[in-house]
């Protein structure tokens, strides 16, 4: 099961690379066409915006899995093991609440988005903003799994270190500031 999970996240990382590359190519091509030939591709402007939205929300799930989001690690690092576990439980409960609200908001907004189409591509806006289902659901599932392992005592010291930022090198810490 862990192998399937890892393959899924490898696929997501590849998808992020493709979205970023697609966005960069479309924007570069449009700049060349506008300045060199006084024309442009309207579809590239629209798709690059949508790629950016998808890139951001898919990347949020991948970053959450890797404990890469911002945190107050200096406070948590001062606590002992039980304090860190308590903070992890509270943190995951809050993440479940916020992500569930995000998922539900996407659900409520879906009929409005489905009735609207993009001006150039004609793509239903439900495809664009529906990425909230993936992000909200993905973060809820990750947090539920972490919460289950925390409550059942299956959390490892490496995971606690990742939560507090203690598993990072000096270079990685410097990148975050």
UniProtKB/TrEMBL annotation:
Ranges for domain Tripartite ATP-independent periplasmic transporters DctQ component? 23-152
Q: Which controlled-vocabulary keywords does the entry list?
A: Cell inner membrane, Cell membrane, Membrane, Transmembrane, Transmembrane helix, Transport
Q: Where in the cell is it found?
A: Cell inner membrane
The UniProt similarity line reads:
Belongs to the TRAP transporter small permease family.
Instruction: Describe the task this protein carries out.
Output: Part of the tripartite ATP-independent periplasmic (TRAP) transport system.
Regions that span the bilayer: 12-35, 47-64, 85-106, 126-144
A GO molecular function held by the record:
transmembrane transporter activity
Q: Which GO terms describe its biological process?
A: C4-dicarboxylate transport
Q: Record the organism.
A: Rhizobium soli
Asked whether the UniProt record includes Cell inner membrane among its keywords, one would answer: yes
Q: How does it sit in the membrane?
A: Multi-pass membrane protein
What is the recorded name of this protein? Answer: TRAP transporter small permease protein
Cross-referenced PANTHER family, in alphabetical order?
2,3-DIKETO-L-GULONATE TRAP TRANSPORTER SMALL PERMEASE PROTEIN YIAM
Q: Which InterPro entries match?
A: DctQ (IPR055348), TRAP_DctQ (IPR007387)
Its domain of life? Bacteria
Subunit structure, per the record?
The complex comprises the extracytoplasmic solute receptor protein and the two transmembrane proteins.
Q: Which GO terms describe its cellular component?
A: plasma membrane
């Amino acid at each position: 099961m862990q192998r399937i999970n890892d393959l899924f996240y490898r696929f997501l990382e590849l998808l992020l690379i493709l979205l970023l590359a697609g966005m960069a190519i479309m924007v570069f091509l449009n700049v060349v066409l506008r300045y060199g030939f006084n024309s442009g591709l309207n579809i590239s402007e629209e798709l690059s915006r949508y790629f950016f939205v998808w890139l951001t929300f898919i990347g949020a799930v991948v970053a959450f899995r890797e404990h890469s989001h911002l945190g107050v690690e200096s406070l948590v690092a001062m606590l002992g093991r039980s304090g860190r576990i308590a903070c992890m439980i509270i943190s995951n409960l809050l993440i479940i609440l916020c992500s569930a609200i995000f998922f539900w908001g996407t659900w409520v907004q879906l009929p409005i988005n489905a009735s609207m189409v993009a001006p150039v591509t004609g793509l239903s806006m439900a495809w664009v903003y529906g990425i909230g289902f993936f992000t909200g659901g993905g973060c809820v599932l990750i947090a539920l799994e972490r919460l289950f392992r925390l409550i059942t005592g299956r959390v490892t010291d490496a995971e606690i270190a990742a939560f507090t930022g203690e598993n990072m090198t000096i270079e990685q810490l410097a990148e975050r500031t």
